[in-house]
Design a protein that fits this description.
single chain; mainly alpha; three-stranded mixed β-sheet; globular
Length: 157
């Protein structure tokens, strides 16, 4: 049976991002064909996406209005073991931290506790901000200042 893996670059991505999805697919499929687990293949495919600053995952994630970046990641295997992090900050690959959570009694760690767990597990500090993410934040701030905010978003300001 030929393994199957599907990759995508997230909501709002365009055909320009296709090469990143294809690179992630190639990494994952190579691992599957070499007999590695589906869990390993998925983790490594997601790392490719998190390392591409054009995606909205890991390096290059969107900044919050205050200039910080919070990221989420989750992974699960066929035995229903799961690991997830939410609102984690200052790590390079949130998916790797989520995978590490699978080795604990927890399923989800969030915010400062997720980041604290990452540090104790040996994940170093990493700033995922890029020039593009800073430019996008500045553009958003400019649009807000000019009153060009979608009606649905006004209630959050």
């Amino acid at each position: 049976m030929e393994p199957l893996l599907v990759t995508h670059c997230g909501a709002g991505s365009t055909r320009v991002m296709q090469e990143s999805a294809e690179a992630a697919l190639a990494v994952g499929m190579d691992l599957l064909r070499r007999g590695r687990s589906a869990l390993d293949a998925v983790e490594e495919a997601v790392v490719v996406l998190e390392d591409d600053p054009r995606t909205n995952a890991g390096t290059g994630s969107r900044m919050r209005f205050d200039g910080t970046i919070q990221m989420d990641a989750a992974i699960m295997d066929s035995r229903m073991r799961a690991g997830a992090v939410a609102a984690i900050f200052d790590v390079k690959n949130p998916i790797r931290v989520a995978r590490k959570v699978m080795d604990t009694p927890h399923v989800l760690l969030a915010g400062p506790w997720a980041t604290r767990f990452a540090r104790k597990a040996g994940f170093p500090h990493f700033d995922p901000a890029t020039d593009r993410s800073r430019d996008r934040l500045n553009e958003t701030r400019r649009q807000i200042a000019e009153g060009k905010v979608p009606a649905w978003a006004r209630r959050f300001l």
